[in-house]
Amino acid sequence: MVDINYANAYTEVLEILKYIPKEDYNKIPKNKIELYETYSNKNYNFIYNPDKTLDEQNVSKIAKGVIAILYRDYWANESQREFIIKKQNYDRMKIEELKREKYDPNKIFSNKDDTSDNIKVDINKDNYLLNKEDIKWYKKFFKFIIKIFKK
Asked: Would the pTM count as exceeding 0.85?
C-alpha cells in the first residue's frame, strides 16, 4: 500500500506526462510508467494546464521530485546530468554538515553548564540550587559517615 501523498503525486505525474513530446515519453521505461499507473490514486482528479507553471497549479513536492528525477535520468544531456548530480551531492553534503554541526557531541557537552557542583534541594516545594560550599560542614560530614556505613 502506497501513502496517499505518493499516490496523488503519481496521478499528477501521469497527467503531466500526457503533455510532453512523444519522443521524451518513449525514453521513460515502460515499467516506470506501469509503476506510476499501478500506485496512482484513481479517485484523485488533477487537471494539468501546460500554459501554467507547476507552482501555479499547486503540484505537490513529491510530483515535482519525480519529474526532476525523470528529467535527470532520461531527458537531460550528459553535461546537464553531471551538473544536476553535482548539485544534489553538494546539497546533501551541506545538509550533513549542518546535522553534524547541530548534533556534534563535543559541542553539546562542552556547552552544558557544569552542574556537578550543584545539589538540588526541595524546600517548601520550591526548587533551589545550592553550591556545595553553601552546605554546612556538619551536613557534609554526616553524609560522609552515612556513605561509609552503606558500603
From this structure: no
